[in-house]
């Protein structure tokens, strides 16, 4: 469950993308059917006789999409120090957890937060250790 974090970092979450894309596809399909109906009606009104065996399908060749990534947070993930990365993770986890406190229904994220660091050649290290601080341990629901 990361919808609030996605909204913060990407500007949208997967549910918004899915819903909007589906609605765009439905609107394009309805528009396509309306245009075909209007063309058929205009041809009939003009007295144009089409061959009875004429058949054609107008299919969608381009996926409906929007520039979803155009407004994402400008975070240089690749160049964060380990301490800043830990603090970013704290922020993101606590944002999701904090928003869950106010959402309808049963919170699916929350409680005590545990963060660790996985480094190449060193393996996994749970925090807190002297060099890295994990201070913001979450909300108690």
Number of helical elements: 3
How much helix, percentage-wise, in residues?
40-55%
Question: How many individual β-strands?
Answer: 2
Beta-strand share of residues: 5-15%
Overall structural domain count: 2
Please specify the SSE layout and strand pairing.
Blueprint: H1 3-10, H2 14-45, H3 82-100, E1 116-119, E2 123-126
Antiparallel strand pairs: 1-2
What does this structure look like?
There is one protein chain. The chain is mainly alpha-helical and 141 residues long. It folds into 2 domains: 1-74, no CATH class; 75-141, no CATH class. It contains 3 helices and 2 strands. The chain has helices spanning 3-10, 14-45, 82-100, and strands spanning 116-119, 123-126.
Concise overview:
The chain has 141 residues and is mainly alpha-helical.
List keywords for this structure.
single chain, mainly alpha, two-stranded antiparallel ribbon, elongated
């Amino acid at each position: 469950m990361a919808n609030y974090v996605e909204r913060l970092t990407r500007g949208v979450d997967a549910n918004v993308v899915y819903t909007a894309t589906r609605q765009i596809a439905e609107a394009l399909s309805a528009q396509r059917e309306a245009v075909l109906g209007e063309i058929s009606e205009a041809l009939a009104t003009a007295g144009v006789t089409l061959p009875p065996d004429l058949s054609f399908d107008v299919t969608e060749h381009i996926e409906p999409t929007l520039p979803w990534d155009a407004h994402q947070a400008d975070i240089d993930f690749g160049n964060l120090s380990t301490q800043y990365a830990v603090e970013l993770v704290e922020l993101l986890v606590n944002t999701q957890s904090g928003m869950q406190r106010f959402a309808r229904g049963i919170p699916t994220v929350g409680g005590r937060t545990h963060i660790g660091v996985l480094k190449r050649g060193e393996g996994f290290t749970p925090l807190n250790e002297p060099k890295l601080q994990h201070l913001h341990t979450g909300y108690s629901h």
